Amino acid sequence: MSESSTLDARALLEAARAAREQAYAPYSRFRVGAALLTADGTVIPGCNVENVSYGLTVCAERVAVSNAIAQGHRTFTAVAIATGTAQATPPCGMCRQVLFEFAPDLVVVLPPPEGSEAEPEQVPLREFLPRGFGPSDLSAGIDP
Predict the structure, then answer these.
(1) What is the CATH number of the domain that holds 76?
(2) Which residues have C-beta within 8 Å of that of residue 7, sequence separation ≥ 6?
(3) Cα gap 95→16, rounded to integer Å
(4) Residue 89 per-residue DSSP state
(5) Minimal CB count within 10 Å: which of 15, 23, 122, 125?
(6) What share of the chain is helix, strand, coil (3-state, %, to 5)?
(7) CA distance linking residue 119 with residue 97, whole number of Å
(8) Which of 61, 119, 121, 127 is an active site residue?
(9) Residue 26: which domain range?
(10) What is the pLDDT of residues 12-41, one digit of tens each?
C-alpha cells in the first residue's frame, strides 16, 4: 500500500496510547485510545467515553472521527487503536462502518503483542468490513 511507506505506524500508535490515558471508562475499565491520521498529516486523538447507560457509550474511533470533522477534516489515511490488552483489538462493527463512511481505503494500525519488538500491524479497513455499505450505495437502487 502506498501510504505504508510514509505512514509512521509507531508514532501513530503512540498517539493512540496517549489518547487512551484520557479515556472515561469507570464501568468496564476497558480504556481505548485512537489516533486518526488525516490526509494532510494531522493526527486527531480520540478516547472512549462510557455512560452508565452502556448504549450511550462512544468508542474512541468515533470520537476521533467526530473531533476531526469538527476541525474541518474529511479525508483520512490511517487510524491506530490502543487498548493496553495483551492482544490487539480491532474496531467494533459500528466504528468500522463510521470509518468506512469517510475512508474506505483506511489503514488500521494495531499494536504488536505486549512486550514484542515487532512492527505494528497495518490492516486495510476493507479486510474488517468487506463489501462495506458506503455513500455510493444510496444512489445504486434509486430511480431518477
Answers:
(1) 3.40.140.10
(2) 37, 77, 78, 107, 109, 122
(3) 15
(4) -
(5) 122
(6) 35, 20, 45
(7) 26
(8) 61
(9) 3-140
(10) 999 999 999 999 999 999 999 999 999 999
